Amino acid sequence: MAADRLLPVTLLTGFLGAGKTTLLNNLLRQEAMAGTAVLINEFGETGLDHLLVETLEDEAVLLQAGCLCCTIRGDLARALEGIAKRVRDGQDLRRVIIETTGLADPLPILQTLMADPGTARHFALDGVVTVVDAVNGTATLDSQPEAERQAAVADRLLVSKADLTSQNKLSTLLARLAALNPVAEPRILGPGGLDAADIIGLSPETAPLRDEALLRWLKETAPAAHHHGSGGHHGHHHHDANRHDSRIHAFCLRFDSPLPWDGLATWLQMLTATRGDAVLRIKGILDVKGQDRPLAIHGVQGVWHAPALLPSWPDAMRPCSQMVFILRDMPRDVIEKGIAAFCAAAITPKRAEAADD
């Protein structure tokens, strides 16, 4: 595998019966998904879902004997290394889809993708796609913590079986999902399935190197953003709709002035080291002092992907920083005060040195 070629990985998740395998079959029939390697995790001793996946037999791997989120993370790393070897040997594989069992907590899987050294050398997380059943979705979110986390960390939320429920029930679910994850607008899965383009290039790091990719990412985070300038807060607070899922909430912060990387990085490391259990996911594109290119960051609980400089800022926008936080049992003001304090501390010594000169 070429050193500059990272295979994008899509994590396909959703609670039991949501319709993940139906969606996967639809996607794999499309030309855009040619060369896709598929990893499927089936809970229990006997796997069935892999028999339904319409792909070349030697491109599908069944991960058995346990839930992907815990007991077989080593199997996942080994399966990915096998895919990397096949690419090095000349096989034309272009991306990977991991379909998890409906019982899987996605966070440990994301940590494996980001933290395993061998995996990080060859693969990059493209996005988390979560399927939610419109008929049972609200009740499932109420009763199943795994389903709640699957929806909260998604980059793309897809609602299946919308034609099998009432408009009132569907509207309630859509509002619930929008509150739980305001940066991943829920989309209805119609009878024709989904265009593969809608799940490709969800990450700025894996998207084709074009302005539209970054603009789309920023646009999708912007509605939830609160503005901060170098002199403090300059925005207003929107209504917080996270009423049902009070333990998990998501928001986006925007900073119009460049941020000092030393101060921000120190604070992020401290936050995840001391409160990693509360930090479900952080992702952001940053305007860093002294750097004329955008910096992408991505963390899951206590694990961080290496920061990546993107090629350039789009011509159509002014550089700014936007960070999405998905938290559990942590107030928003802890984040805002922490960033302000550490960034101020990083700037103050430099000002003092300049005064001495």
From TrEMBL:
- According to the record, the signal peptide region is none
Pfam families, per database record: cobW, CobW_C
What function does this protein fulfil?
A: Zinc chaperone that directly transfers zinc cofactor to target proteins, thereby activating them. Zinc is transferred from the CXCC motif in the GTPase domain to the zinc binding site in target proteins in a process requiring GTP hydrolysis.
Which UniProt keywords are listed?
Chaperone, Hydrolase, Nucleotide-binding
Give the top-rank taxon of the lineage listed in the UniProt record for this protein.
Answer: Bacteria
Record the organism: Teichococcus globiformis
Reactions performed catalytically: GTP + H2O = GDP + phosphate + H(+)
Q: Where is the CobW C-terminal domain?
A: 248-343
Similarity annotation: Belongs to the SIMIBI class G3E GTPase family. ZNG1 subfamily.
Record's protein name: CobW family GTP-binding protein
